[in-house]
Amino acid sequence: MELFEERGFQNTTAVEIAKRARVTTRTFFRYFADKQAVVFADAERLRAALIQQLGTTADAGQPLRSVTAVLAGFDWESLGSRESQRRRDRMIASNPELLERDLMKQHEMAEAFSGVLQEEGVEPCAAELAARVGIDVFRTAYRRWLAADEGTADLSAIVETVVAALNSIAPAPRESET
Predict the structure, then answer these.
(1) CATH number assigned to the domain with residue range 1-39, chosen from the 4 options 1.20.120, 1.20.272, 1.10.10, 2.60.40
(2) 32 φ, ψ to 5°?
(3) Average pLDDT of 124-152?
(4) pLDDT digits (tens, 9 = 90+) for 67-122
(5) 40-170 placed in CATH 1.10.150.20
(6) What is the pTM of this model?
(7) Pfam families, per this entry (predicted)?
(8) If we measure between CA atoms, which residue out of 122, 162, 168 comes closest to residue 141?
């Protein structure tokens, strides 16, 4: 990541990354398909952990709450300091190739979450909506958490605030509307 920050993502080559990591280019390509994969190196481990957690805690009666709780409950700082996550997030947002890959990763996560929710008995349409909306709710909260000062913001509390905002714009139907 430091090399990307120094030279810019677009200006950094796989050869330079390998050299900085003190490995051959061939070794680099054994581990990473391309330089974009370096930015998302933890994606599969993260996905597996979140899917496993959702599978053990999903509540078919509250699928959206299940998704947001799993995402909020993960130890995001295990992926690096908040500052390093801020830098990564800025790099992704400023690079179309990385942004596209990030959106694909979010889509894959939503598909996996939807599948888990359906296995738990949630109707397919509701499962898909809960997964996609839950991920968007979390992304909004995550970016607010990244923007906050170190040690001043609790991610779970920010998720609750974003869920409350969602509920304020999409309240539950009244009895007379059902």
Answers:
(1) 1.10.10
(2) -130, 135
(3) 93
(4) 999 999 999 888 888 999 999 999 999 999 999 999 999 999 999 999 999 999 99
(5) no
(6) 0.86
(7) TetR_N
(8) 162
